Amino acid sequence: MSEERTVTLKIKRQDGPESASYEESFTIPYRQNMNVISALMEIRRNPVNAKGEKTTPVVWEMGCLEEVCGACSMVINGKPRQSCTALIDHLEQPIRLEPMTTFPVVRDLAVDRSRMFDALKKVKAWIPIDGTYDLGPGPRMPENKRQWAYELSKCMTCGVCLEACPNVNSRSEFIGPAAVSQVRLFNAHPTGAMNKEERLEGLMDEGGLANCGNSQNCVQSCPKGIPLTTSIAAMNRATSLQTFKNFFGSDH
User: Fold this and answer.
1) DSSP code of 147?
2) The organism sits in which domain of life (predicted)?
3) Choice between 52 and 3, residue whose per-residue pLDDT is larger
4) Residue 143 in 3-state DSSP?
5) CA 239, CA 173: separation in Å to the nearest integer?
């Protein structure tokens, strides 16, 4: 009788924001088409570590389970990515799971991504409208612009690009590539363009584009293939023009 296949996971755990981290190993039964999420669910169902000791279930975040919500980001075998699309068959064992280091750990693999959401607030990554009455259909966007804007709209605020960026850390206020790309997206929108200068000013403030080191790690790591470096270059040009407009006091 052949020995039953198993999966070994080495998980970096932390009991709370102020607690010291430690590593705990788990061995679970292998099933076909498993992803990292299903492996974590198996541990949650039977929280016994590789030593046979009863332990606490591992904490992580998840939502859609189809790479849309961005909640299940973690570092898998040294690479930040989505755990829902990380298939066990494609990963080298033992599989090492760690929380992203750019964000504060809440517990185990769950992190607080407030830094990223605060960056989106700083650049006003939305289109403000008066909801008191129906404004009717907005202006149409040209098809060629709509196509590349759609690519930017795929951002799911997963935080992987911030984790991969060496300039996003505790010693820097850099807002990160996701927020920069969202400025490009909303400034390209016919209605969003009304607040264009306000968003560019956000990129020109402390922690803005000047902090980008152009390492290009972000575009290589983005799960959705968003052209983040193209957005950064475009916003560099836009902020340069805005600087001239501010200097010369032009309203045009």
Assistant:
1) H
2) Bacteria
3) 52
4) helix
5) 18
